[in-house]
Amino acid sequence: MLDASRRRRRWRPWIPPLLGILAVLIGVAGPAGAGPVAAAYQATADSNETAFEPPCIGWDDPHPERMLTLATAGLKALGYDARAYKGAAFTRGHVLNRTVGDWSYYVHSHGDYYWHAGDQRRYTGFREDSGDCVQSVVFSKDIKDRRVGRQTNLVVISTCSGGDANTTMPGAFGIAKIKAGELQWAGPKFYVGYVGEQFDNDEEAFEVTFWDALKRGKGVGPAFELAMLEDFTHQFQADWWGSYVWSGRAGPGGTCPNCV
Amino acid sequence: MPQLLHPSFLRLGRRSAAILLLLGALGLLVSGLARPADASDPYVAGSDATRVARLSDAVAVAAVDRAAAHGRVLGLPAAAKRIVDRVVDRRGHRTFDEVTDLDGRGRPVAVLRYALDGRLLAATRLGWQPGTGRALPAAADAVRAADRLARSLGIVPVGPPVADSHGTNGWSVRWQRMVDGVSILGDGLRVQLWPDGSFHGLASAEHPLAARPATTISSAAAQTAVGELLDRWVPGDHRGDVRIVSSSMAWVAPNDTFEPARPDAPAEIRRLAWVVSVRFSGIPAQSLRALEVSIDAGDGSLLGGDVLR
Question: Which ipTM was obtained for this model?
């Protein structure tokens, strides 16, 4: 009994420093370079996988899954509450349900400037996955109607034609097609899309560096510039709109560090 | 934290020291500091694509001097300070020193990357700087401006240039690296210009090549091999919507496009291949526009390829 009490006393001075070390370790285990955010800022990452694996096609293309992983990890590092969807979970209905709460959005799929029969005009859009080989188009108009001007942070449209001069996708997310440079501020928002038809290897090379640079704290504009320095195997083009100097971090805040 | 200086903390027993050592090792593992600092561990998507370490002023001096000289040549804004990071690009199989030019208020204004032997690999002027000068009217003007910029850096472009207009983003002028008339995909020199011809960015790449096969298969043999793959890959009712449009010889990075069990990163060493281009039409083209299938020019095996959704 006495021994036990003496043993407890001997350990007592150790408790605070050990708790301190534990706290330091927990701190280190947090997201590197990003830091926690107080509120949950929803982000959605979608990738069309089913069209590029059996039975729709005879081999399993690893790009859709890998680029989904990259985007989800990148968004989480920026403080978003990012969720990844593919297969039967990535449907047109899912996109339109989630977009109401999305601060950030990523999609990798087949994209184009699609004809909309109802409106007798074209809109930028992309194909859902839906877990089968017949896939509906999600038009920018559909997203715009659901978001009704809701603020967006970061949008990366990893499809063909998402960055064309006539793209209607930025507007769906409330991002005007203006380039706010180092002395300007268009709010904490940034849109990236590819111009014309782009092959997956080039898109992946771009995205690996883009997300990596954001994780390194470079900010969206420099991350775009660094991604454009990759070793592309085709004539590669991407474009952006929004605030060049924004950090990319989740939430309604953010400032123009150069404007003051 | 003052508790760490408690006198009893300083009188460590063997068991306590062991616990502390264990906790320390755990901390290192968690923070990633115990990871190898080279590119020998394979890159897996979702893990860090780069490992970055800030170089001390003493170590960074050579890179800083080079960046200062190149910055003057390229007309980059004067840097009040430069920071240098050693970057291990795990996916790209390369290590380089990255110099970031900062202005008087600590804002990054340019990035220059150097191989460890001092070669300039890439440079970019940060910011949206479309320029105020007269826009270059034609591709030939862009080529001349890009060629002049490259030569001013001591880089002599080789081969036929290709200039693409990127609208308000300016021009991209590219010289594809070739060996004995065969392109090395992804290698060469690319210069980005603002519309008025001022410097925006530059990137050069030169990957190692595998030995050239002693004998090579014919283009027809490569197309036959791809035709057989398409017979397996494309459902029968759509096989007629998929056709081979061309094939050309090139040095390519083997990859996992058609075999996902291969490494996530494309291989560092380029291999000689027939790149067979395939175009989709009809219903299949609603999700897949085209393929490039790389067939080893020596043994006819599948090296990888690319997908256009």
Answer: 0.87
